Task: inverse folding
């Protein structure tokens, strides 16, 4: 790796750190200053004024805003202690994303518990949608204007338009409940019972993949159509290269850049939780955690999940950009 | 006539000179509309959308004319013990054209029309707001450049990294709490909160597109001449540059709209959107879950309408994009 790449990477990392700081400030302001009374949002429906006051003090919501933000930032790096001078202080170790007095657990622990399930969901559907999306994208581009192209694009448009939760309910309705093709979903880690894991995950994988594959078919197709018109494709063909090589090595390769960008960001976005799909298939991931904490009004968990999900996207952005700089010299700025 | 000069069959008795004059006089609007008019799918989608919009605007009147309303339970239409609608298709009859809801006997048609009104209100308002914010921020960022541009660029980067669905969920209780302090409660607060969050997290991407367009537009001669004539910056931004941006704005808006309809449905489906007694597509689908094995009508009717609406808008969006593309029609 040359020095110019290293300098570029260093600059990008620095700017990412700045963005993370800005992000933490925005998340903090959104959830601690925007609500009329953040303390009231920590304990949901069964709330009494006493609990609200207790939580206000325990979470430090009675301090000045600047001091609260400082505590929040400090907690991320060195951990913090809630209600330090009370008889039962609560220790929250670094990186402390907050503490849920409702669930009596550290938010980072709750997220850690949900992450494997969300990760399996994201990875599985990612593989399906990339294979199907790029495959059908190339196929439609090569059969452009014919009936195969039109019918794939038509189905893709419907897949792209329908809300994922609706496809999810339909899948549950027909495949699980009506035709009993699959057992009712109950998540187990793949290390515990692989076949049960696959039976649970296959539907959510497919439903989620339908949504994304539709987008990737369209993206790949338009990229392919653009590159297939280039002169170097004609050159490659006239050299007598077989069609397979021309398409794989020349056309698809050149059009891959935006596909890789989208793929990186979409995967990262999903790691922050696929809220609707996780809820419908009762998967205990980060999305379900977020939905649950919104319905029971558990503010610290909401803040933590939002922050973590956004960090995934920012880091993915960096990774994608750096990969580019390594692969494609044109991207490297001087 | 929407024939262009290139479409005219050469050699027939077509007066080419006259045609050329007509073509030269057509604005981008006219060319686009002409192309859309010839696109059968697009016209079908325009009709479908128009139909739904009319239905939404006149929802109370239509329900009144049909003789139904979305709130009143009709115990005569359902059985006493299980609350099952009498007759097939959720008890569809002359009195209840699409049948009634299981358990309460509320009319499905009325709920559908009423829900359409709320969904479209939210989606349109959020789209208009997001496009307005994105345009203004993008124009300012692109035209002023320098530090303002760099600062706005950073903000956009951060905004784009937020998971929008998650924030939509997360911010609704927060905004509810804030609104209740100023005395705004119930569905008015909910609708406003949903519109606000959708709009606030919908503009950044558009601002980036607009910024790019403005960067190239501001180097053009007509902007230079406006500067030379001493026009104020505001005038240049909004009278010279803005009118050149409507193509990307329109395409972006037709992309946002169906997404927003689906987002609202998702929220209401999980009980975080519209509050009862109002119902939208999402809450109808959500309510149907407990008995859809016995009575699928209540699931499939709102589901199908939602699907038709969203697919139609997306298809129209595609056609608009094709019609606006100067390279279209050459292939």
Result:
């Amino acid at each position: 790796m040359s020095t110019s790449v290293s300098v570029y990477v260093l600059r990008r990392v620095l700017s990412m750190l700045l963005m993370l700081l800005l992000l933490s400030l925005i998340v903090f302001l959104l959830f601690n200053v925007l609500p009329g009374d953040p303390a009231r949002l920590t304990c949901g429906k069964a709330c009494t004024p006493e609990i609200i006051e207790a939580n206000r003090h325990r979470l430090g919501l009675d301090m000045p805003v600047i001091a609260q933000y400082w505590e929040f930032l400090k907690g991320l790096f060195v951990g913090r202690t809630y209600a330090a001078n009370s008889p039962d202080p609560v220790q929250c170790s670094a990186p402390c994303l907050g503490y849920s007095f409702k669930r009596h657990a550290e938010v980072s622990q709750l997220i850690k518990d949900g992450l494997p399930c969300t990760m399996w969901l994201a990875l599985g559907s990612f593989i399906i949608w990339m294979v199907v999306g790029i495959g059908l994208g190339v196929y439609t581009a090569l059969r452009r204007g014919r009936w195969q192209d039109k019918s794939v694009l038509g189905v893709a448009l419907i897949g792209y338009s329908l809300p994922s939760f609706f496809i999810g309910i339909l899948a549950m309705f027909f495949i699980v409940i009506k035709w009993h093709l699959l057992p009712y979903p109950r998540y187990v880690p793949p290390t515990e019972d692989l076949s049960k894991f696959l039976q649970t995950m296959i539907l959510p994988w497919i439903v989620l993949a339908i949504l994304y594959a539709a987008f990737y078919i369209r993206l790949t197709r338009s990229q392919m159509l653009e590159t297939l018109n280039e002169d170097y494709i004609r050159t490659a063909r006239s050299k007598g290269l077989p069609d397979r090589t021309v398409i794989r090595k020349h056309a698809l390769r050149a059009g891959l850049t935006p596909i890789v960008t989208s793929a990186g960001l979409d995967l990262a976005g999903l790691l922050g939780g696929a809220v609707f799909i996780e809820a419908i298939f009762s998967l205990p991931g980060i999305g379900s955690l977020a939905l649950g904490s919104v319905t029971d009004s558990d503010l610290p968990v909401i803040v933590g999940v939002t922050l973590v999900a956004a960090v995934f996207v920012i880091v993915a952005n960096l990774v994608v950009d750096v990969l580019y700089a390594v692969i494609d010299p044109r991207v490297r700025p001087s | 006539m929407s024939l262009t000069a290139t479409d005219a069959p050469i050699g027939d008795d077509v007066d080419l000179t006259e045609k050329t004059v007509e073509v030269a006089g057509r604005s981008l609007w006219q060319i686009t509309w002409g192309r859309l008019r010839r696109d059968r799918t697009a016209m079908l989608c325009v009709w479908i959308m128009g139909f739904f919009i009319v239905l939404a605007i006149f929802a109370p009147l239509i329900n009144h004319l049909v003789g139904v309303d979305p709130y009143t339970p009709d115990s005569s239409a359902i059985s006493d013990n299980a609350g099952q609608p009498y007759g097939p298709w959720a008890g569809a009859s002359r009195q209840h054209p699409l049948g009634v809801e299981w358990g309460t006997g509320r009319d499905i048609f009325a709920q559908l029309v009423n829900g359409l009104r709320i969904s479209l209100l939210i989606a349109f308002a959020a789209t208009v707001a997001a496009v307005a914010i994105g345009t203004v921020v993008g124009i300012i960022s692109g035209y002023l450049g320098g530090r303002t541009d760099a600062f706005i660029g950073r903000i956009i980067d951060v905004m784009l990294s937020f998971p929008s669905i998650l924030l939509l969920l997360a911010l609704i209780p927060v905004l509810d709490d804030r609104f209740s302090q100023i005395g705004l409660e119930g569905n008015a607060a909910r609708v406003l909160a949903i519109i606000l969050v959708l709009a606030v997290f919908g503009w950044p991407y558009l601002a980036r597109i607009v910024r790019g367009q403005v960067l190239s537009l501001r180097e053009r001669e007509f902007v230079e001449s406006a500067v030379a004539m001493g026009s104020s910056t505001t005038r240049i931004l909004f009278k010279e540059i803005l009118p050149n941006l409507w193509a990307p704005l329109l395409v972006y808006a037709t992309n946002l709209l169906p997404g927003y309809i689906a987002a609202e449905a998702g929220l209401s489906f999980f009980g975080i959107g519209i509050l009862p007694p109002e119902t939208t597509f999402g809450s109808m689908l959500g309510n149907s879950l407990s008995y859809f094995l016995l009575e699928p009508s209540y699931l499939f009717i709102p589901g199908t309408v939602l699907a038709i609406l969203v697919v139609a808008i997306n298809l129209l969006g595609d056609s608009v994009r094709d019609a606006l593309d100067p390279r279209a029609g050459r292939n």
In short: The mean pLDDT of chain A is 84.
